[in-house]
Amino acid sequence: MTFRLPIAEAHAAKKVFIVGDFNEWSKNGNPMRKSKEGDFAITLEFPFGTFYQFRYLIDGLHWENDDAADAYMQSPFGSDNSVVMIDAY
User: pLDDT at position 43, please?
Assistant: First the structure.
């Protein structure tokens, strides 16, 4: 599964990490790569039939959701988390 944060949403970021329940919300566990165009991307593998909550952490300060998420769930902190659903198709 490839996650992509477009340059418009990255806010001129230097570093972006994908953070979610799949990595125990580790703020530095999954760094994303910056393209020449300024987008950030990462490819992760997940088992089929699962779903995960996640967000992007920009420069260690700013949280961003994924506009292309499959769904959103409310977090215990009063904001929404992005959700990715891993289907077998």
Answer: 96
The tally of domains found in the chain comes to 1
Question: In a 10 Å sphere around its CB, with 0-12 CB exposed, 13-18 middle and 19+ buried, how is residue 6 labelled?
Answer: middle
- Residue 21: CATH number of its domain: 2.60.40.10
Determine the structural domain holding residue 21 and report its residue range. 2-86
Nearest partner of 68 among 54, 57, 88, judged by Cα: 54
List, for residues 48-65, the tens digit of each pLDDT value: 889 999 999 999 999 999
